[in-house]
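User:
Can I borrow your eye for a moment on a structure tokenisation matter? Would you put together a sequence-and-structure record for a protein of your own picking? Please set it down just below, with no commentary around it:
AI:
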Amino acid sequence: MTTTHATPAEATAYEDDTGSGWVDFAALMLAIAGVMRFFDALWAFRYHGQLPDNLENALFGHSLKTYGWIYLGVTVVLLASAWLLSARRSQVARWVGVAAGAIAAITSIWLIQYYPVWGLIYVGLGALVVYALVVHGKRPARS
């Protein structure tokens, strides 16, 4: 009885499939975080209810409109980096993604005392994106 062994499929973009999966995960998480930040910005622009008592002591003052503009800018950065990672798969896209993941985590800390669960989720997602791109975002394989 003879056994035949299937030859492994060639990796298309990266040296190992695990790294490519992590890069895809990072791109997807950046896109989701960008959409979430967009809704945060909309909420900040449209909210007219009572604000927390100590919001005036927050980093950027008491105006939710200020946070809306900041979150809109973060939205652009997150969505652009997700697109770069998906479309380009270059080292520049990788490091832009690392910066965007760090920005996503840092901007969630501003209001963590008001929304601790969402803040911790944002920090965790940002940390996973940075991990994925730093550890698994290797240079593309040469053909």
